[in-house]
Every structure is written in C-alpha cells, then in structure tokens.
Task: structure prediction
Amino acid sequence: MSAADVPLPDPGEREITYVAAFIEAVKLEMAADPDVFIAGEDVGAHGGVFHTFDGVQTQFGERRAVDTPISEQAIIGLGIGAAVTGLRPIVDLMFMDFVLVAADQIANQAAKLKYMFGGQAKLPLTITTVGGAGLSAAAQHSQSLEALFCHIPGIKVVFPSNPYDVKGLMAASVREDNPVLFVLHKRMLGQRGAVPVERYEIPLGQARISRPGSDVTLVSWGKTAADSLVAAEQLAGEGIDVEVVDLRTLSPLDIGTVVESVRRTNRVVVAHEAVRFGGFGAEVAAQIQEEAFDYLDAPVGRVAAPFSPVPFTPALETRYVPDPARIAAGVRAAVARPLLGR
Amino acid sequence: MAAVGVIVNPWAGKDLRRLHAPTGHTPDAAKVGILRRVVIAALDAGASAVLVADDVSRIAARAVHGIDGAALVEGPGTGSALDTRRAATSLHDAGCRPIVVLGGDGTCRDAAMGAPDALLLAVSTGTNNVFPRFVDGTSAGTAAGLVAGGLVPWEAVSARAKQIHVEVVDGHASHHDIALVDVGLIDAARTGARAVLRASSVRAVVAAMATPASTGLSAVAGRVAPVRRGDDGGVLVTLDGSDRLVRVPLVPGTVDDLAVADVVRLADGQAVVWTGPGVLAYDGERDRVLSRTATVTVSVRRDGPWVLDVERTLACAVRRRLFDRPAAVAPLAKEGIDD
Amino acid sequence: MELTDEQLLAMHRSMIRIRLFEETAGKVMETGKMPGFLHLYVGQEAVAVGVCEALRVDDYITSTHRGHGHLVAKGGDLRRMMAELMGKATGYCGGKGGSMHINDLSLGMLGANGIVGAGAPIAVGAGFRNKYLGTDQVSVAFFGDASTNIGAFHEAANMACALHLPVVFVCEHNMYGEYTPTNKAMVIADIVDRAAGYGMPGVIVDGMDVVAVHEAATEAVARARRGEGPSLVECKTYRYFNHHGIQNLGLKYRPDDEVLAWKERDPIFTFEAKLIDTGVASRELLDATWAEIHAAIDEALQFADDSPFPAEDQMLAGVYS
Result:
C-alpha cells in the first residue's frame, strides 16, 4: 500500500505549535531510522536559531545532531555525499535567503545527481530552511524564494501552512528518495494547531482544500494559505463563499485539485508572499488557463508582494506582505468582474 | 663586486614526511618573509647588491619586490633540484660571496653540487636541517652583507665543510655523487616519493655530521657515535637486526627502533664499500637505484663548500663597532679576528 | 609497503587504459561523432592511478570535469564509458550525463562534475557517512589547482577538518585553470600552503611519478583510515592537451617548449623505463600490454558505435526516483 492510500489520522484534541510539530517529526524519523541525522549551523547545542531543532541533540547526541561551520555549500554537499552513499540526512540552512549561497550544490548537484547517474542513485536528502518576512529581518533574511527551486527539475519543494501538515509532510520528506526543500515560515513557528501524537505521512504532491466554497477558488501555500483562511472568513460575511486550496507541496504541483476546484467556482485567485513578477503564482495561473480556460469567468487573479526587496521598517514591511485584507481585496476583484459576453 | 647571492628552494619543507609525522610545513609566505629579511639586512650591512635566483614559485620575485639593490637572476625553471644547482653555479660565477641558501639538507647538497667551492650561509627551511642553521633571516642577511662588503673577512669566520663522496659502479655506468650530511643504503627498489620513512629499510649509514639532536638518517649515527661539524672524518653505522636497539627520529616527530650491528669511526678519506641492490639516499632523499651488481665506495673528506658562521661574523662586527653610527669602519686589524 | 611487481604492472596497465581511452575519445570527437565537451586527462595519468591504487573498491572518490581518468583508475568499464561519451543508451548514465557526469556508484565513483570545485563538498559528505557509520572507508576528492580559488573548496576543506572526517584532498596541479595560467590566478605557487590554514597536513609529490603518488596517497589514506583526519596531497602534473579537445601545441596561452619539457617526463614512458631497468618487465611484455589495451579500446568503441541512442521516452526517466 502506497503512502497515498493510507488514511490520514484525525487531528485529535492535542494542540501544539508549528515548530513543535516539526521537531516532533524530526525526532520520530531519527528514532525510527539510525541513518537519519541533522546537520547545519547552530542546530546542535543551540537547537537552531529558530529553535527548529530544540532538544534533538539532547536526545540523539552530537553524532546525530551535528553543528557545522557557517558553510552553506559544504552543508548541502555534506548532505549530498552522505545521501548518495546511503544515509538519510536532514541538513538545515538557517534562513531561506541562504539557499542562494548554496545554490550550486542544491540546483546543479543535488537536483541533477540522480539524472546524471542514469537514474541509478537515490538521494534521500531533506533540506530544511525558514523563509518569509514579518520580523523586520530586512532584505537578506526575509525572502520567499520557493519559485527558484520549483524551476529546477529533480528537487521537490514543500511549504506547509499549519502544524498538522508540518508534521506529516516532514515525515514524508525524510522518507522521500529525492531531495526535498522543506520550507518553514518564520512567522508561523508559534502558531498552534491540532496534531496527532503518532507518526503519519502526508504524501508529497497533494494539495488540500482547507476550506470548501462555491464562489471563487483561492490558491495559496505557506503562511499566505493560513492568511487566506482568515480572508475567506471575512469574505463569508460579505456573502462570498471562498474555496481555499492549500498546495502544501509546490513541486510536484497538484494542479488537478486546483483545476477541479476552478471548474466548480469559475473564478480563481492565487496568493503568495513572494514577489508577484516571475512568482510561482504565474505558473499556477498559466496551468489553470491551460486546463480550465473555458471554465473561467474572470482572469486568474494574483495577490503577491511588490517587485522590491523586503523592506526593513515595519511601516513598509506590513504593506509589503500580502495580509488577509489584501488577499480579500484580490478575491473581491475577481468576483466583481461581470460576465461579459455571456 | 660585493654581492650576496640568495637561493630559495620552493619545495623544501613540503614533502611526504608531513603525512607520516607531525613535521613542520614551511609555506611560501614564510620563505618570502625570510628571504626579504635576508635581502634588506644584507644591503644594509654592506652588500652592494643582492642577486636572488628566480624560482618557479616566484618566492624570490615576491620577496625582492620594490627593493633597490636586489636583482633576480633567471634560472632554468625546471621546478626540480636542477634549479638550485644551476643557481649556485651562476651566483658563484657572478662573484657572490656568500650565497645564502634557504632550504634543508637536501637543498644545501644541491647548492654544493652546483658550486663546490662556494661560500654558503644556509638557513633552515627544510625537513631535516642538520647542515643549515636555525637563524633569523635578518641575522643571516646582516652576516652575509658584512662579509660580501669586505667589512668582515670571510676567511676568519668560515670553515670548509666535510663532504661525503660516493663512487658508484653499476654495470657499464659509473657515477660520482656527493652528500653533505649522510648517505644511506636503503632496502628499496625505487626512489618513489624520495623520503626514507621505514626504519627497517635502512641497511647502513655513513654520516659526516651527526649529533644526538639530529633528525633523519644522520640521527642513526648521532645517537650511537656523534661526529661534529668540526671533527674530521665520519662514522659508519651498519644495521642488520642484531640485539642493540637504538631509538632514532628517522623523520622529525617519529621515533623508531633501529637495530645497530656495527659502528665504525671513519678517518678522513677512509673508504667504505657497499654493494647493491638497494637505493642510495643522499641527505635524506632516496636518489640512486642500485642493481644487484652495483658497487659503491663511500668516503668522508673535508673538501665540501665553505660555510659562513653567522654568530662569529656578527660578534666580529660588534668588536669592530661596525654597527655604530657613524660607522667606525676602522681598518681591519688582524689581531681583532681571533674567534 | 614496497610495491609488488603485480601492483606495478597493474598501475602501468591502468595508466595505459586511461591514455588510450582518452586519445581514442579525442580522435572520435574530431570526426564529429562525439557530441559536447571533452576534457582529456592525458599527461595526468599517474595521479589517478597512483591514488586509486591506494584505495579499496568501497572507498569513495569525487571527480572533476576532467574525470575519465579517475573512473578508469577506479575500475570503470571502458565500454560503458565510451558509450556514455557518445550519448548512447548503454552508457554509464544512459547517455544523459556525458563526459562531465560520468560515474559508477558501484565503484564508489560519485561522479565527474561540470562545476569546478563542486565535488569536494560531496566528498566531505561521503567522508561524513564513513565516520557516522564507523567504517574505515575513506573518501577522496580529486580537484584541480584552479578549483582551490572557489568557495566550495574552502568550505569543504574547512568542514572536513572541523568535523575530523576521513577525507583525502588530492590536488592535480596542472598549472592552468582552463586557459589561464594558475600563477595569474593566485599569488601562492603551492596549493599545500593552503592546507595549514585549515589545520591539515599537506604534501607535494611529483605527479608524473606514479610510484611517488602512490606512496603519498598510501600515507594519506592510511592516516584517514586510522581516524587521524583529512590531509592534502598536491600532485605537480601537466595536461598535454588543451583544456577542451586534443590540440596540443600552438596554443596562445602556453608555450610549446613547456609542453615538450613536460612530455619528457611522461608518466608512462618514464615508468616503463624504470620497470625495464629494475627487471620488473621486459619491453616485449609492456608492448603486449599496449596491444591488448588497444584491442580493448577498439572493442569499447565498437560497442559504443553499435549501441542505440536512448529513446525519447527516456527524457524524464531518472529526474526523480
């Protein structure tokens, strides 16, 4: 039975944070498989600057929770070399912005290795990182760069929006035999949600309808997917019934769930935190028009950040990141468009 | 001409022995610094010019950059021992007295091969440093400049070094080789990476210089029958697994048991005869492969290069107040040079 | 520790396998039958062979864009190699990797690499794996002199030392980074001078002398196996051909007499002279080896020629497992 056939557990009563769900997943995978280890800057004794690995070294020791130098290329290289020779590494890049420091190792090495090996090799490598704006961390510590890696064949990209998904997607990512870029959002780390105690996997490449609705489809991921639910509740008060699709995994993209929704609602908005120009929303929009052109009553709307680096001052940063109000405004615009020519 | 010559061996202090033992590494940056100190001090002390042999690693070029009075002398640039030999010849022929050599025992040997009558001032930057002295470049340069400039007469502060002569007859070929410190007969078939690492491979050693503080093959003799720089003759140690075991630092940072069979003092010119097969190691490096029929005759004689004594030179300069300003530069009196 | 005659002859054979494979590949490229770039290893054979002879099959290596020699020395299959270079389905990578991505996981050869300097971090990862699992395997990173100016090399060298991993860094100092003399790209002349900066020993060895390389590699590998950490072996060597292709003399960026001087020190011919001098082999025996490998290369070329190109439906195969 494949992972896709396993029914997901009920969330249950217990509520934990987004970061706690992540740590729980890491620890469960490490406990289950001696080949799983973590390595990265400050992940050992300190537990990660965002506490994403709190207690891992305490539980598993220095051998399996390795503090590395500040050397992003070598951190990814360490993961690649260990993965292709049989281990199942979790390597951490402290901030998502630092993927660019390691871009060669991620995009030219990890993503292409299996193909270059004629498909013979496995590369069970999970690269974890923390992205997104909202902490006045400024232009080099706040970006959402997921689109860059969705453009690279050979690596999967995961960006969960809630604790339940974090735990299940992380378990699946670690068990994945392909490299995975697993992105946490820094403003979501303390968000609480119901999470089962037991281990479970959410298969990669499956979107989720996080709120059913009939008037318009709102596609998103990461923190923006959580904000989309807030926007949807606001819009419900205005009589607009929004269906929210949380992609969860961006690559491979579950366009089927999106298209199926759009065919019912006939209107769609894609919202994300990354800049609009060349953003992953453009790919989603393009595929929607390819697959559901005749079902659309309005152009595919996009809500995203302006084409600038992330500003430092809260006065601008709060206007930069799409919030529920801006997402709602985008949805209203899509819904307001009259049905011309029908 | 009152010129000082300088030769630097770029690869001294970088060989295989660093993997085998905690032996020091001498990076180019250190050699550049030593060489530059030599040049500056030599010009200050009285040399009219410093001629520095160019090298494949451009250590010399970097060291003399921007210094008036220093000039590079082109060499063959082979990146091998040949560069040191040729440099010694051309600097000696150009009238450089002394020639400062930056390297270890092997480098000094190459310099002596290139210029058998040269006056050498050897500064340690090698692996085994029995022949050269541990001295700062500034002091070495000062002494060199004083002698080159005629302020201190070289005869008073120099001595002729011993040399080990090796006559090899192997089939139709014959060779005359020299070494300054030690010659070893090694149980090996190839020169390989040159260093002698295995204690058990050493069959016999002739040393011209061997103190208990030596490292390398010379240490084999240094720890059973020391022979000083000033003593005539040498010592022969034969090893064959008898019951006298001696602790010997064959490579700096290692200590092995060597089984000493026989120790013989060698008078000046006294010949020792060995036969192949094996490899002859000269001043620490496997060099010449011997066939089964090869015959080797080894002897120690005091006909090596002249060696300048830095401390005696500087002491002499102090007595003559050569460091005072204005410089005393009193005419040299023979009675002042008694040390 | 002294090499046996069998080992010496095996190294001789391995160097000839590289030489003839490369020369043949170069000729085929000239005919237009071989697509893409071809960075030939001729001149540097003693390095790959001297090092790989000091390794076990289960030791790992990472390679460079000039990587055929490393795979041959690790025991690579000439037929699958030639087929890969020609883009055929029977090649090591199913024709989808080509010269710059040739590899054989079963031989611990973790890939040639099109990105200068990128192999070293991966070798560090393999070294980490060996230490993590408590095996005595080592990993070797082959890299060129020019790649030591790249950040990835510095990160890898430092991390291997910081984590005390069984990694041997083997620098093939061939004096040129593509078409630029190394002495224009760095002030220092010896890559080993960098080793001390990371806290590992570094040694220089004559990269044209297979026995010397083997001795140094044996020491470095033994050290790593004993858990004494990384080291760097710098092999002074020379690539006979142009950065890409088979042009040899008449290049704008290097003098012909330099090429000829290095060829005087040819790693195979000087080694053969020593084998004969020391009675290990006769000229006839060595000639027979050349003839035998000539035939094997011809056979590999025929195999590659006869092999089909991959079908279009193979385009996406292997992107993901």
